[in-house]
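Support request, please re-run this one:
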Amino acid sequence: MREEDLDWAVYHGIPQTGTITVEDLISVTGFEPDAVMASLERLEHYLLIQRSGGRIRLLSIQESLIACRSRHSRVDLPFVIENGVIRAKKE
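Re-run finished. Output below.
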């Protein structure tokens, strides 16, 4: 299976609202744990998901766009994103 197809299947195994554990995602998708973990790494790198405390959730389009802007901005932005929350940077 191509990585793109695996990522698509793993992405769609994550609930639209709420979170899921890695173990439950492996069970839902039926893929090998190593393959799911590699896919999660790619999905997180592409700013499509967030992993926190052993749980996985989909990022909204707005969250993904803000995270992308934050990652690729050449200007030091006045905020940071921590666990899905936008916070003003501390001086």
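Helices lie at 3-13, 22-29, 33-45, 61-72. The mean pLDDT is 89.
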